[in-house]
Amino acid sequence: MRKIVFVSFFLIFFSSCFKNGVTFEVKNQSGIQIDSVHISNGYSSVVESNIGNGKSYSIFLPFDKKIKIRGDGSYQIRIYNKNSNREMNFGYFSNGIPLAEEYEILIEKDTIIFHE
Predict the structure, then answer these.
(1) Distance (Å, rounded) from C-alpha 67 to C-alpha 80?
(2) CA dihedral sign, ordered 98, 99, 102, 104
(3) Lowest mean pLDDT among 17-21, 101-105, 112-116
């Protein structure tokens, strides 16, 4: 009986620890202000506007439980400036479950660097 209670508690505790989404720490090191950053998983998206040079922002992208995500996928970032737009795919999720809870995104003048 104790084992059943322990296993039940263990499963409930760890299942409650999982947040249903991913946090992106976006750092602008490009030397210019960015008009907006769009991050998407193909099912939901978030937008952060007016990201100043040298500033950091924490962005949370939820994985909606109402939408049954089947299969694998990646994230997409789109960066909009007055003079240029950039788009790149990165990361990975499987069946609606993110493999990483957090990504650090460094936006530089001509490069985007991703760290899990």
Answers:
(1) 28
(2) negative
(3) 17-21
End-to-end C-alpha distance for the chain, whole angstroms:
41
Residue 86 β-bridge partners: 79
State pLDDT tens for residues 38-68. Answer: 999 988 899 999 999 999 999 999 887 666 7
Structural domains in the chain plus CATH codes:
20-115 (2.60.40.2890)
Q: What is the pTM of this model?
A: 0.79
The secondary structure of 103-114 as a DSSP string is EEEEEESS-EEE
Across the range 77-96, mean pLDDT stands at 91
Give DSSP secondary structure letters for 65-102.
Answer: TTS---SEEEEEEEEE-SS-EEEEEEEEEETTEES-SE
